[in-house]
Each structure stands twice: as structure tokens, then as C-alpha cells.
Amino acid sequence: MTEYATMHTGHTGMEKFGYFDKLNGLDHLPHWDGEPCRSIQASEGSFFPPRDLTKKDTVYIYDKDLCRTLPLVYREPVEKDGISADLYTLAEDAYGPPNENNSCFDHDHYKKYYGLQNISPCQYGAPVYISNPHFYQSDPQLLDAVEGLQPDPEQHKTYFKIQPKLGVPLEGQVRVQLNLLVEKAPNVMATKDFRDFVFPIMWLEEVSGIPCSCKRPKLCDLHYEATIYLEFFIFCFLVLSVT
């Protein structure tokens, strides 16, 4: 679905440069009840408040499919193709444990794990949860419950390289894993023998700062395709739940 947004241009100050002012006519995200989960004070990925001017070490990016903003924390100065940049990575506690910045994403019906967050309110009520790919920086219990995953920071971390004077991302990758909360249902024949665990469905990568025509063109389509697959999966889940 097309989204309509108004943005802060920096005319009255650079603290919110590149951030949403309104999204689809709203000044908040409707899926969540409390702050800061409802906040739309984030970039869509094209511009960020320049750190040289704001002196702030955290910027935010909005992800439509996750129905939330993600905090990116400054780590160190780097270079990209000879241009100076600031390296930002996803905050370690972005998906948990519950704290003042993310507890409003949780609900009382599931066990809270480090590095796992509920997004069911924006996925038609399906028990969908997000984490880093391969449960990188997540509770070891999540990784121990499945086979075949090997967390690797170089492959699975979310990061951005942002030019500090302009606030323009020179390179960035948002990496996220979609998971399904599986619970034993003794009255449902097909699932009565299932154990309780968090089942990783897929992980995807969104690329920023690199033109699709220049490098890794296949990744440019991955976000759209993964979104379609997720919506189809959720539809199947809802049909099975009803039947």
C-alpha cells in the first residue's frame, strides 16, 4: 500500500532533518499504545540529522513492514570510497530485553526474550516476532531451540555509514529475521505434538545508499519479495486458525 509522508527539511533546525513530520496524515504509529513505540520521529533512509551539527549519537530509521522505528547508535568514524563517514549499528537492546524504549511493543501473552520483539498488532494478529538474522545478539535459548543457524556479525548486523556533515547515508543495510511463535495446541490434531519454540521463517536485507543498477541488483528486489511471502504466510496462518 502506498504511504504518504511529510518530512522535516531542516529549515527550522537540523535535529529532525530527514525525519517524518506526518505519515499518512498521522503524527504517530497507530499499532502501538505507548511512547516511544508510537513515534514516527525517524528517517525513511535517505537523510538523517547530521551528527556534526546535532552532536547526537543516536539516529532513527523507520521500517514500514516492522511498523516501528529502529535506533541506530554511533560507533566510530570510517571511510566509504575515500569519503569520511560515521558508522552506526542497531542498538543491542532494540528488540529487547524490555526497557523504557521498547517495553510498549510487548504483551503479556508470551515469554520475553532478549533480542526478540512482538509485531503481531501490525500483522493481523498473527504471532510474528522479529529479531536479528540467525538470532544474532539474541537470547541463546532461541538459537539452541533450532538447528542450522550460525550468527555472524559481518553477515547479520544492521549498520549505516552516514556522512557526518550532510546526513546522507553512503552505505547501509537493515537486516531482520521474521519468526513465528509456535505453541503446543493439544486440541488441534496437526499441531498437538509440537513443542513450544520460536520458529525462524526467513531473514531479509534492505540496502540503502547503493544504486540498484550498480551493485548487487538482486538485493533490491528482496525486500518486496519477502514482504509478499510474509503476507501470504500470515494469510495461510489465519485460514488455518479459523478452520
UniProtKB/TrEMBL annotation:
This is Uncharacterized protein. Belongs to the CD36 family. Plays an olfactory role that is not restricted to pheromone sensitivity. Its main location: membrane. It is found in: Cell membrane. The keyword Transport does not apply. GO terms for molecular function: scavenger receptor activity. Coiled coil: none annotated. GO terms for cellular component: cytoplasm; plasma membrane. InterPro entries: CD36_fam (IPR002159). It comes from the Eukaryota. Keywords: Cell membrane, Glycoprotein, Membrane, Transmembrane, Transmembrane helix.
